[in-house]
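User: Can you predict the 3D structure for this chain?
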Amino acid sequence: MYLGRRTNDDWRTNTLKVIYTERISGKLSLIVNYQVENNLSHDDKRSYNLVENPAGKDQDGAFSSKMNSNIWSNQGGLAINYVAPKFVLKAGNNVRSIAMDLESELDNYKLKRNFLNWNPSGGIQYTVKQYSVLQLNYTGNSINPERTQLLPLKFNNGQLVTYLANPDLDNSFSHKISGDYNTAKVVSNVYTGGNGSVTFITNPIAQAINVTAAGKYIYRFVNMSGYTNMNYDLMAYYGRQLPFNIQMIAALNTSGGKSFNLTDDNVNKLTYHTYGAGLETYKSRQKKYSTYLLVKAGYNIISLLCNQLLRITFHSLKSNRVWRFIFLRSLKYIQMPIISGNRSLRRLVTISAV
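Assistant: Here is the predicted structure, written as structure tokens:
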């Protein structure tokens, strides 16, 4: 089968937002917001069987879509800010109602869904001492199913691939906790700090894949009830001025996470961890030259647990280096060729039974 494609799409968004701020006292202020938004979209993606009808008039319904969507959202929110000499406190919440009206004209199918979203947030910024600041924040967020997850479009980019609708998809919810600390000694030109965050997503939406005996792939989005996706990141740095007026900064970082999906109705678990280190140096002389050196190294681990039976683990180690030298002449500069390189030092894949 040979298919041709014609596309005619139209997307429009209209938004109205109002924000009101009231100072209640010298330290306390109130912020109220309201927003209404309308998203209209018309997706017209037609596929035509060109084998039996080279003129392109024989429309193929299995790979054609004509979708209309009308999505209204109304959001109201309230937040407070409290400012004191040593700290700043923020807290608030936004509540958003969403009404989705979806239609597939070629399938003569209509779908109406309503969602209620919550977006709580809070944070504190504490000044430990001059040039030393600590921040802690929390953000919660409802994650709606996308319209193409509820009612997917049909494409002709793969005749062995089918996307199924799931009109019963529910919201997911994410919790993110983050922190940041920075301190500086201005006289000695020493800087130290770090930041990190962790995010949990409950009832996550994942892609489920089923493979038939004929080799056809059937995709559908589902809620992974009882499972929680997670990701994290952490970074620390130290910078100072070295002899000969050389600026230096060294950093360590790590990140990782886990997520879940389905293959043939069996749960797969994907985990990953990365570790990195870097060193930067910089030196310049006014109207003379500027030089920069960066050296980084990283180690990655990716692990996939398939159907609770087979574990595939991928290890990789990489390095990166960049050196740049620039001559400065009367507000103009001549840049020497940049010397840089990337190198994969080692890759290792292990497969083991659980």
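The radius of gyration is 27 Å. The first helix runs from residue 147 to 150.
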